[in-house]
Each structure stands twice: as C-alpha cells, then as structure tokens.
Amino acid sequence: MRRLCFSALVVIALAQAGCAARKPVKSSAAPPAAKAEAAPPKTPALIVTPFAIASGFDRAMWFTEFHASRIGRIALDGSVTTFNVGAALPERIVSGPDEAMWFTDPAGNRIGRLDPSGAYTYVPLRTPNAGPASITLGRDGNLWFTEHAANRIGRLTPLGTLTEYVLPHPGGPAGIAFARDGNLYFAENESNRIDRMAPDGRIDEFPLPNPDSRPNSIIAAPDGELWFTELAANRVGRLNPNGRLSEFTLPPNLRPFDIAVTRDGKVWVTVPRAHAVCAILPDGRVDSIYLADTVFPGFITAGPDGNLWFTEPTGKIGRLTAAGALTEFPAAPVENSAAEDSGPRHSLLIGPH
After folding, report:
1. Is 83 in contact with 69 (CB distance < 8 Å)?
2. In this structure, which of 129, 174, 225, 260 has its CB flanked by the most CB atoms within 10 Å?
3. From CA 6, how far away is CA 333, in angstroms rounded?
4. Is residue 158 a contact partner of residue 98, using CB atoms and an 8 Å limit?
C-alpha cells in the first residue's frame, strides 16, 4: 500500500467529513407470515471523488478520480465523459504537447498517458515506490514530475524516454512548475523550502522563514514570479526569480490548499475547510469568496473560458467566475459513457528507457 501524500489525505478527509452513516431504526412490527422472495442485488452506485483538475488541449477540463481508475472530461457546458485507465490510481494531471493528457499513478509507480480516443499507456519508473506526485509540461516540450518518496525529479519525453534526477538533499518534492525564466521550481514540503532546478541540473534552495510551513502547490504567474501554498499555515508565498521571498497572510483559519493564476495575473487559492476561494491582489490584500457549507473546493485551475474550475470531493466540479458566481456540475455522466463502458482496458508499457 503506498504512502499517501499529505495533500491527498486532506482531500480524503474532506470527502469523509460529515458522511457518517446513520444507524437504521429497528422496526417493532411483527414479522411477515411467509418469507418474502429475496430482491435481486442492486448495482453498486458509481462512487465519484474528483481529485486534481487541469485545462486540456481541447478547451475542456480534465480531472482524475481518486477512488476509481478513471479520468473525467468535462466540457465548458458541463457535460461529462469518463475514461477507464486500467488498474491505476490517477492523481495529478496535465495537458501534454501531443494532444493527450498525462498523469501520475503512484499506486502503479508510473506515469500514464491518455489520448483522445480513450487509449492509455504507461511508463514505469525505475525507482521502486518513488511516489510520483505532481506533473507539469516544460517549456522544452517534455513532462516533468516530482517523485515525493524517492526525492527525485523525473523528466519524460512524449516518446517515453525517462530521465531521473536525484536531489542533493532530502525534502519530499511535491508541487512543480516551469517559470518564464526557463527554470523548474518545486516545493519541498518536508524540508520547508522552494527549490529551483536550472536546465543544466544545478539546484538552488530557498528556505522559508517560518518552520514547518509545508509548502505544497506551486504555480508560475505570467510575470515570472512563483506562488505557492503553505499547507500548515494561513499563508501564501511568492518567490521572485532573483530569489526574493515574500509571504502573504490570509485571514485567521484560512489555510490554503491549492493555487491557480488567471490570465490577468490574479492569484487564487482554495480553502476547503472554510468553504472559500481567496484572491490575492497585487498589493497583498486578500479578497475572500465564501461559498455554501456544502462546497469543499479542492484542486483548482484556470479554464480557457476565463473562469476558475475546481474539484469537490463530494462528487462535483465547480465553476467560479471572478465575480463569485458558482455553478456546480456532477462529476459523473448522466449515463455511463461509451468510454467508460467499452473503452480500452489494457495497460501497455512503454519502455523502460
């Protein structure tokens, strides 16, 4: 059994919050004179737990399902298609350079690829139990990902050639992003720092000023600055490419989970336990949009329509406008899609290379 990342545990806990089953009430009525014929077993309900989300190559939003071997596609009008990806546990997802979606599978210790037809392939990692976590598309056209448990950064070409880089110090790399300066940035949530990897492999480390902040998600803004969440504090950090670090304090009890940036450069973070999405303005002020108590915004990203899209562990996908108008869509199709019923169920392996 793989060790779950801290971010995954947060979302699972949210999905389970308030979901304790009620005990059945015992009936005082007399038993029937004759034994009734047993009813046929019911088909198990489809359990949908959306996890990570990303904007796709086709102007749709794509999301992983943490409790199932599925990846979902939700069009901008809210219609959903699901794709079976074999015996896997898809976690983080990104649009690749080849009109396909690429995702991490920590349970299978591999990177997966799903093309528009529903066919999927996998690239196994060389290091056992590496814990592939976050994944991003590099400016070089390759897929880059963190190996949280193995303290490595992986690079994968669209053709399946794999390279792994061992980090000089342990730290548990989590979120990862490419910046405008051509460098790779990632959060080390066990060592409380942000690291920068140059194209030649050189590593620069930027420790955070407050201990045990647990930096996790990170994203590059259009101006080249890096923004990241601090899971164990009510702060959001900003790292200038020159190494200057700033931190912004959110209102009390607002601990950020995931982070996104819109085309206007505004930074947004989700705060699941507070049922809120917060915008960080250029001057450091924080605008908070509080949602209904039934809404637990998880992973978030900017969509091609200019809106924010986020997953909810309760089985929904949320669409939020900059003005705070929320629309929720069920993350399961109205009927099982053809991709779910008859899609490919193979597990081809590319490599190893």
Report:
1. no
2. 174
3. 29
4. yes
Top CATH class, 125-349: mainly beta
- Using one digit for the tens of pLDDT, what is the confidence trace for 146-197? 999 999 999 999 999 999 999 999 999 999 999 999 999 999 999 999 999 9
DSSP state of 8: H
SS3 95: strand
Residue 117, C-beta contacts closer than 8 angstroms, at least 6 positions apart = none
Distance CA 338, CA 353 (A): 34
d(C-alpha 205, C-alpha 196), whole Å: 6
**Distant-in-sequence, close-in-space partners of 353: CB < 8 Å, separation ≥ 6:** 123, 160, 161, 162
Q: Where are the domains of the chain?
A: 125-349
User: What are the angstrom distances between the C-alpha of 348 and each of 50, 87, 162, 181, 187?
Assistant: 25, 12, 16, 36, 32
Residue 94's beta-bridge partner residues? 102
> Does 4 score more than 80 pLDDT?
no
Contact 194, 187 (CB under 8 A): yes
Question: Is this structure's pTM higher than 0.70?
Answer: yes
94 pLDDT above the threshold of 60? yes
What does pLDDT average to over the chain? 84
In this structure, are strands 120-124 and 110-114 parallel, antiparallel, or unpaired? antiparallel
Distance (Å, rounded) from C-alpha 200 to C-alpha 140?
13
> Which phi and psi angles does 103 have, rounded to 5°?
-150, 155
